[in-house]
Amino acid sequence: MNLDFFFYPKSVAVVGASTIPGKVGYELVKNIVEAGFGGDIFPVNPKGGSILGLKVYPSVKSIQSIPDLAVIVTPAETVPGIVGECGSIGVKGVVVISGGFSEVGNRWLEEELVAYARKYGVRVIGPNSAGIINTSINFHACMEFRVPRGPISLISQSGAVGGILFALAREGCIGFSKFVSCGNSCDVSEVEVLEYLLMDDDTGSIALYLEAIHDGRRFIDVCRKFRGVKPMVAFKAGKSSAGVRAAASHTGALASPYHIYSSLFKQFRILEAPSLSGLFSSSKFLGLGFRAKGPRIMIVTNSGGPGVIATDLCESFGLMVPEPSEELKSKLRSFLPQICSLRNPIDLTATGGYDWYYGVLKE
Amino acid sequence: MNLDFFFYPKSVAVVGASTIPGKVGYELVKNIVEAGFGGDIFPVNPKGGSILGLKVYPSVKSIQSIPDLAVIVTPAETVPGIVGECGSIGVKGVVVISGGFSEVGNRWLEEELVAYARKYGVRVIGPNSAGIINTSINFHACMEFRVPRGPISLISQSGAVGGILFALAREGCIGFSKFVSCGNSCDVSEVEVLEYLLMDDDTGSIALYLEAIHDGRRFIDVCRKFRGVKPMVAFKAGKSSAGVRAAASHTGALASPYHIYSSLFKQFRILEAPSLSGLFSSSKFLGLGFRAKGPRIMIVTNSGGPGVIATDLCESFGLMVPEPSEELKSKLRSFLPQICSLRNPIDLTATGGYDWYYGVLKE
Description:
The structure is a homodimer. By secondary structure, chain A is α/β, with parallel strands linked by helices. The first copy, chain A, contains 13 helices and 16 strands. The first copy, chain A, has helices at 4-7, 24-35, 79-89, 107-120, 159-171, 190-198, 216-225, 241-251, 258-267, 276-287, 304-316, 326-333, 354-362; strands at residues 11-15, 40-44, 50-51, 54-55, 69-72, 93-96, 123-125, 131-134, 139-142, 149-156, 176-181, 205-210, 232-236, 271-272, 300-301, 346-347. In chain A, strands 9-8-11-10-12-13-14 form a 7-stranded mixed beta sheet, sandwiched between helices. In chain A, helix 3 (79-89) links the parallel strand 5 and strand 6.
């Protein structure tokens, strides 16, 4: 399925736009405007008026042209009708930011939403989504803060996790290509987005924050079809029994036992991250094109304690931290003083500076 | 054993003091001076001269009074003799910053050092130590950067780990009371320091970074004697086989199998931290006097993903994240909108602000 209308819309309506700063309906319009989106932006609110210099339309139908995409932030009970209205005039995709659906037990309302979407042939991301981003066209229809352009694409069942990774990216001097907060995945599933991103040229690596996969069969098919095409890193939340319940109150998802995910990840060479920072750093290095040649790791440090901790971590991930060959050791000994340990970690001690690091890394 | 002369010296000599900024022998004097130590500081270097306005003495013997403590930063082979000299004139304690002893295989040199110390009755911290800190008297004889006063005391077999925890403390707005970098623990062991700190009124919680305990028998005795007196948190490094080898090249320590440590920690109610940040945050909250009443945890969040991750973590530590009672739920429902999940985590959603948090925490 081509999801281009979600990622490359020429125009976007924001239904439930607000004139009051701080309200979701205002901040969303502000984010889209300030990110520098080049297409048309149509705020929609029955009250009319204008927001950030943009004319506010009383309804989607009253917009002079048909927007490619609509982002909806109105109260839950109004959403199914609005989705239907969007579909009836030919809007191709809808992102529903509004919450209050299956994640709080309102399954019937979510089913109504899906029924309207199917009836009028419109695709839906969400509800309970934090939005969608494509930095290559400065499109930021998202509640999370802005993030620079870069090689990582992120599919997340939590908007806040997007925010956390964006914050890490700022510190880590790397950016994102595309981000989708799937929310409850009532129509477009995380698997469908994954398939799309696996074919996306701007995406160097794919990071997945998963609480539950909604369509396991399709997930397996997509992973099999695209095995090895692009590096993927996943963090699975909802591992414990209480975590599964928490995931259910978050996106209405019912998670399968963790070990099933774990073995799927292994089978399809999806790297499993032990933490969100691991998810970020792995997708960063893979996105930049770094690949390890094998499982043998050499650690170079200028302080012993962190060297020991890094060694433990390597072994816990199944990597090896072998002693260097006598040949390499004698090469290193030729320019490193006696005080340095050469047994891997190579410990340059607190005196170790640029020259020694460079010397060791060159060998 | 009373170690007051290490932590409350009235005067300190720095043997191997240097006039060249950037050199360990200069930075150490600078740290002591700039921290605002009220006692006498005697830099020692055969070259004489002055450092930061302080007169440099050609030898420890030439100082007009006997310093309580000497900090040594001279090349390894000179250290045993200097320790002997210090002891012979009545210096009570010596902190050896210099490395190049058992951690790089020079066991004989370390044995010589110990022999001199025993002969002249002087106690030794190190060698290969990053120094010692007591913020209550602004005493900072340490290579790591300065840190504000506070309730945490840290015993570490790595100086750099001290630096990492100090950095976390700056961000986390909390300070340290005492810090000892034990280095190779050739004389004063981490266990002896532990016993001292367990009796220290300024210490609210004790953080331990351990690669190996040098005197297991005594460790058990101390833990048994002081069980429950003060909260202790430990991070054990050198868990894996390569990690044990790395620890040996770091402080010359031979670590026992990890499970022995793990069960000792359990037996003596020493909290085991899974990471350095865990070591810091646990000792922070325990140092401030926070105590959990039991294993039942209520998580309040304004974003679902982090709530699910926190739930998983709680369960992995053996804590419980139970559903709230119907009574509590109906109380919360009285002021929280339908969109919030009340199943623990209590998810206030992105709209959740101060009032809702306050309301939930009050109940």
